[in-house]
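ARCHIVE CARD
Drawer: 12
Card no.: 0347
Subject: one protein chain, sequence and derived structure
Cross-reference: see card 0346
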Amino acid sequence: ALLRMSQEVPSNAALEGLSQRIFGDSGIKIKYSDGAGRYVVTDKALKPAEVVLISEPYTHVIGEHCLDWVCDACCRVHMNEGDSFEFCCPDCEISYYCCEDCKKEHSVSPIYSHSAECQYFQKLKRVDKGSLDDLSLTKLRQLIRLLCKRNFERTQDSGHLKRQVLYEDVESLVTHDVDSSDEEYREIVKVARRVLPRNIISDSDNYLISMLSRIDCNQFGIWSTKDEFLGAAVHPLASFLNHSCIPNVFAEWEGVKLLCRTLYPVPAGTELNLSYIAAGVSTPERKHELRRVYSFDCNCPRCSLPPAKAAAYDAFFAEFLQCPKCPGIMKFVKYDILEDGKRGETRACMTCAHQRSA
């Protein structure tokens, strides 16, 4: 059976409160429409490379294959990739750290403490994990961490949580219809119930499957400079930015934080968009990838307009955003003063680091 996922229509007061909590008085607002759901708009003109959001993850996990050489606190990769970090949690031996400070911060953080989950990670190593492969085990640890943090959050006073990313932000993310008999999701839920006590995982199977779907649809992959998967982070705030194949915002990692910056000048009143995929490929390829990974059909101008009208968007993308070396996007780096006195600019590819001046 399909679980029908619907998004509750938020009130104007709720949207204003959410905008204030996330963006403060920056002039950036969260709005809602029946067609787009929640989306982000700027009420002021923005310059290239201007920071529009610094997003803290609600949770993040390191991939199963690289647990001992990627820091669980800051996601730093061991300088000798494949070698184990010296510092780790001696109890669960799942969380490894690049330094003593990261280990300590992860253990006593006022936002979330590893001690809230450690005993369950220890139990995870002992229980039957069925047929779950490494990627499914990574999703399982993400779910365990998510539910442990929800339980941790319930013990905090409201003042302490006022400016933080909350479980309700994750819960409110859009997901799509999911088969309640999905074998992978059901196996993950089954193992999670073996690990967690009932007071942490009292939810129905259908609810937990819907949360796994939310995670899959909204999390951001953490990748090495060699384009190797290192882990994934649930960034509810960055997920409020909708997708476009002609984006005006890009996201870059700063540890486990995501910094969202503008790609080019953005006029006031414009919706802010990220590209969820490599936008430098053909329209059929983009549509296929978005449908396969995110379960939606893109209606941005590059995808929805007739080819003749979409050509202008393709030309803009090719001239300003397309990396000539790979399908990556060129981010703004700096303005240059050319020999004739005119102003040019330098851009760098977010994927391969190739630089181009124009």
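Annotation on reverse: The two ends are 54 Å apart (CA to CA). The chain has a mean pLDDT of 88.
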